[in-house]
Design a protein that fits this description.
By secondary structure, the chain is α+β, with helices and mostly antiparallel strands. About 25% of the residues lie in helices and about 30% in strands. It folds into three domains: about 120 residues, Rossmann fold (3-Layer(aba) Sandwich), CATH 3.40.50.20; about 70 residues, ATP-grasp fold, A domain (Dna Ligase, domain 1, 2-Layer Sandwich), CATH 3.30.1490; about 55 residues, D-amino Acid Aminotransferase, Chain A, domain 1 (2-Layer Sandwich). The model has no long low-confidence stretch (mean pLDDT about 95).
C-alpha cells in the first residue's frame, strides 16, 4: 500500500517555487509514490480526544506556473494517514502551540509526526543554539533595554532580533552610538516586556552564513552559504540573499562534532 503523507504548511499557493524546501520534499515524496494530503488552514481539531484534520488530496508539479492541484477537503481522523510533516513557518504563537498539542495526541495514537511536536515547542531556533556557547559569538537574551544597550557598549556593532521571527524580518544592525538604537530596542522589547536576542556583529557574514545538513551524525560535505546582496548584512534568501554550495571547512566540522 502507498504511504499516505499529510503536510501542515503555509499556504501552498503562496510558496516561492524556486526555493521552497517543503515543495521539494513533496515532489520527492510523490516521486516515491506517496499519496499526498494537504492540511487546510486552521484544519486541525479534537473530537472526543481524537485528532481530526480537514485534508485535501494533493498533487505537486515541478512547474513555476502550476505547482499544485488540490481536491476538495474533507474532515477525517488524522490516524488515517501514515505520516505528517509539520512545515509551518514562525511566528510561534498561541494557535501554533495548540496545533502541536493536537498533533502530539495524534502521535500518541500512532501517527508518525515529523518533526515531533514537543521538539518544535522546546527547540526555539534562536535559543537552542545557546546550549553550545563555545560555538557562538557573544550573545545576550534579555527584556531589559538597559542590559542590551550595555551589551552594545561592550561589543561595538551588534545584531538585534526577536526570538520568533524568520526570513530576515525585524533584524537590526546597530551600535552603542546609533541614534536609532533606542527606537530599535523599543520595537523589539517594548517597555522591557519581550525577550530579544543580541549578538556581536561579525563582518564575515559577507561570505555567507552556512546551513549544514547532518544525517545520523555525519555532515554532508557541502554547506549552503546564504550570501547577502548589495549593502545588506542579512543572508536570508527571503531578504534578497543568494545561496551557493561551498565545501565544509575545519571549523564547520568541529561545530558538527560539538553539537
Amino acid at each position: 500500500m502507498p504511504t499516505k503523507l499529510a503536510v501542515l504548511m503555509d499556504p501552498i499557493e503562496k510558496v516561492k517555487v524556486h526555493k521552497d524546501s517543503t515543495l521539494a520534499m513533496l515532489l520527492e515524496a510523490q516521486r516515491r509514490n506517496y499519496l499526498l494530503h494537504y492540511v487546510m488552514s486552521r484544519g486541525l481539531a479534537l473530537r472526543q480526544g481524537v485528532p481530526w484534520a480537514r485534508l485535501a488530496p494533493l498533487r505537486v508539479f515541478d512547474d513555476p506556473t502550476r505547482w499544485y492541484e488540490r481536491d476538495d477537503a474533507v474532515w477525517q481522523e488524522l490516524t488515517s494517514m501514515d505520516m505528517l510533516l509539520i512545515r509551518t513557518d514562525p511566528p510561534f504563537e498561541a494557535e501554533y502551540l495548540y496545533d502541536t498539542i493536537v498533533l502530539e495526541q495524534a502521535e500518541r495514537n500512532g501517527l508518525r509526526v515529523v518533526n515531533p511536536p514537543q521538539a518544535l515547542r522546546d527547540c526555539n531556533e534562536k535559543l537552542y543554539a545557546l546550549q553550545f556557547p563555545q560555538c557562538c559569538v557573544p550573545t545576550q537574551v534579555s527584556r531589559s533595554r538597559k542590559d542590551l544597550r550595555n551589551f552594545a557598549k561592550e561589543h561595538g556593532e551588534i545584531v538585534l532580533k526577536p526570538l520568533d521571527g524568520m526570513g530576515g524580518r525585524r533584524i537590526f544592525r546597530s551600535s552603542a552610538n546609533d541614534p536609532n538604537l533606542n527606537v530599535i530596542l523599543e520595537s523589539l522589547v517594548g517597555e522591557d516586556q519581550h525577550l530579544a536576542l543580541a549578538q556581536r556583529f561579525i563582518p564575515e557574514i559577507r561570505q555567507g552564513d552556512k546551513r549544514i545538513l547532518v544525517i545520523d551524525g555525519v555532515p554532508i560535505p557541502y554547506a549552503l552559504a546564504r550570501v547577502p546582496s548589495g549593502s545588506d548584512f542579512r543572508g536570508n534568501l527571503a531578504a534578497g540573499g543568494h545561496g551557493i554550495g561551498i565545501p565544509l571547512c575545519a571549523r564547520d566540522r568541529w561545530i558538527v562534532e560539538q553539537v
